[in-house]
Amino acid sequence: MRVRAISDRDYLNMIRVSRRQAPASLWIKGASVLNVYTKEWQEHHVVVAGERIAYVGEKEPLIDDQTVIMEAAGQYLVPGYIEPHAHPFQWYNPYTLADFALQTGTTGMVSDSLMLMHLPFSQTAAIMDSLAAHPVKQFFWGRLDPQTGRAHPAFTKESLARMLEHPRVIQGGELTNWGGVLQEDETLLFGLKHARDLGKRMEGHHPGASYETLNIAAAAGVTACHEAIHAADLLSRIRLGMYATLRHSSIRPDLPELVKGWLALGVPWSSRMMLTSDGSTPPMHRDGFMNSTIRVAIEAGMPPEEAYVMATLNPAVYYGLDAEVGGIAPGRIADMLLLTAKDQPTPSIVIANGQLAAENGNLLVPTVQPQWDEASLELQDPLAKRANPEWFRLRPDEDRKAPVLEMLNAVITRLSLEDMPVDKDGYVTLQHDPQLALIAVIDATGGNRTLAVLRGFGEQLEGLASTYSASGDWIVIGRNPQAMAQALERIREIKGGVVLIDEGKMICECPLPLAGKFTSAPMEEVISMGENLVNQLRAKGHVHLDPIYSILFFTATHLPYARLTADGIVDIKSGQIVVPALPLP
Prior knowledge:
Blueprint: H1 8-18, E1 26-29, E2 32-35, E3 40-43, E4 45-49, E5 52-57, E6 68-71, E7 76-79, E8 81-86, H2 94-103, E9 106-112, H3 121-130, E10 137-142, H4 157-164, E11 169-172, H5 178-182, H6 186-197, E12 201-204, H7 211-220, E13 224-225, H8 231-239, E14 243-247, H9 255-265, E15 273-276, H10 290-299, H11 304-310, H12 313-318, E16 336-339, E17 349-352, E18 355-359, E19 362-363, E20 401-407, E21 413-419, E22 436-443, E23 448-455, E24 463-466, E25 474-478, H13 481-493, E26 497-502, E27 505-511, H14 523-539, H15 547-553, E28 562-565, E29 568-571, E30 576-580, E31 582-583
Parallel strand pairs: 1-6, 2-7, 8-9, 9-10, 10-11, 11-12, 12-13, 13-14, 14-15, 20-23
Antiparallel strand pairs: 1-4, 2-3, 4-5, 7-16, 16-17, 17-18, 18-19, 20-21, 22-23, 22-25, 23-31, 24-25, 24-26, 26-27, 28-29, 29-30
Helix pairs in contact: 4-6
């Protein structure tokens, strides 16, 4: 398939430039060029005709006064990086993330569409199609389940087929509802099979999976998995014919140990390996995007050539795009990066579609401006009443037992029923333990609330409210019902986001006015906003890897062991509601 169309005229001109019968538009001289197909560095001329590479070799091109000549002696030329597993809605959005990616050397992304699939399909398609004009080549994957435990019209057989058949969608997944597959859910199995019937890839999600489970996944059509935690996990996936993606994200910074573990195994690096930053939240992007991931791999002991191949050619081959992108070779789109050293993956110059696109981190070309006002992305707030402190009071059961949700790490939570002290009115009091807080999930549509005591989020946290959640429900955490109500009212006023209250004052406000989950602000602003929230929560004793992901995943029903939903607290293994939701008073 063509990533970018080429006209008959430009096609003929490319051939003529290659034959030195027409002048080059761009000539890169003197660079040491990485041949990703052989993993060797060669001092070759790279000659460009319009958007595409016409020639790579020892002969000089024909030039004229329009030819841009780039003197690159002493520098290193590599293909533009490809992020094979992006989640472009972690406060940022596909447009601002693409701009940031281009600044830092990533010229291709395959992105999650979960946030888009809740829109009318015409709006989803319009957003994906508009991004085709961005210098960063962005494709998408089609989700098979909503991760909320609720039925949704975007996740019927008909809707899945329509999404998977869209030309900008080049894979299905990531497949998080593995239990549904084992229960032979018809819609999930249809999505799995239909993606493969279309000749598209299928991304799995199998953390800690046994070799036997991976066998079943491969039989079902899973072609890659990014959830390897140890080097042995990588090997198991590759042995079963999958691609294995080495991850370094804000919630799973596994890459150094994966690299060291692979080196200890003493087996060759595989052409079925890729690298990903896997939807890191904004603060981690202070260090960059795929350029940062490559740097981590190199610093952990991966040879630079292998790291660049895993971030260029391998994902291009995996997605069937290697005739267009992923290498510096004739006929490919001219996406290339100039580096100052082999082991320094942050580019000084980014070339995209044959044009100088960025220099020293500054964009030099126009990108694509979104039309968010044409999408249905307003925060859904059907509640007619204001937030009330009474919403955030928990009465134990008749045996004085209260549900306690303990954070085992940043995203895994376990439920227990514990004896809790109560105040004079019979409500749970947390004064005996500063590490406890109340967590409430507010279902604004149904007018319900799900309550639990939360252990492990921080100390003396008065009030935090967030519309940023996996389910779309509102999350409120704190020890002071008045501060919790104040925080919730503030995020309703700003039409979505995260607000933190301390000593009666708002100490952090993160507006996310697009669906209550992301913003149109540029990445630099979003990164700073995320850093402020994380720093404030760290000061309140939050010790886990990524508090932003913690907030997101409290309502994500694809994770163990207990989750908060609009219907109550659900035991993930059994699928049963163990503590029902209550109506808002």
